[in-house]
Amino acid sequence: MRVIVDRNRCIGAGLCVLSAENVFEHDEDGLTVLLAARPGEAQYAAVREAVALCPSGALTLSEEGAPPPPE
Predict the structure, then answer these.
(1) Residue 65, pLDDT above cutoff 70
(2) What is the mean pLDDT of residues 23-29?
(3) CA distance 31 to 33
(4) Could you tell me where the beta strands, DSSP code E, fall in 7-55?
């Protein structure tokens, strides 16, 4: 899994940081900074939640090479 942040779309809502604090943080302008573009498998659920909760759609995932989500 690879995480992509479009800082031009980011509104600084902070839901990504609350969902996956080991993957995202905010800079001094309040915009999302990516700490891990390829998070470990243990972070997958939290990252997917962050992407789903992002109100501006600034977060996207590339699932290439990632194992399928659990059923």
Answers:
(1) no
(2) 97
(3) 7
(4) 24-26, 32-34
pLDDT at 63: 81
The answer to whether the beta carbons of residues 16 and 43 sit under 8 Å apart is no
Place of tokens 């031009």: 8
- C-alpha span between 30 and 25 (Å, rounded): 9
Helix (H) or strand (E) holding 4: strand 2-5
What's the token pair of residue 32? 């999302």
pTM, whole model, 2 decimals? 0.85
Q: What is the mean pLDDT of the chain?
A: 92
Selection from 33, 13, 15 nearest residue 23 by Cα: 33
* Percent of residues in the chain assigned helix, strand, coil, to nearest 5: 25, 20, 55
- What are the two backbone dihedrals, phi and then psi, of residue 59, each rounded to the nearest 5 degrees? -110, 135
